[in-house]
Amino acid sequence: MNYSFSNRIAALQPSIIREILKATSGQDVIPFSAGNPAPETFPIEAIRSFTRDILEQDPVTALQYGITEGYSPSVRR
Q: Could you give the residue ranges of the DSSP H alpha helices within 1-77?
């Protein structure tokens, strides 16, 4: 497969944020500079629960492009 890119692609600079995240992604690194929260503070079960509820009740609306304000069960198309 051949790809064609604009000539402007050569002028792109790497994202400093992306570089910081790459440098701090090791398990032996505490990423203070990246500002990442501690994984053990993630509310995984709560997110799993409301994601399951939304996908069971109204999956198409939840996954489809919509208004920029976000998912709102009261908005029907």
A: 16-23, 44-57, 59-63
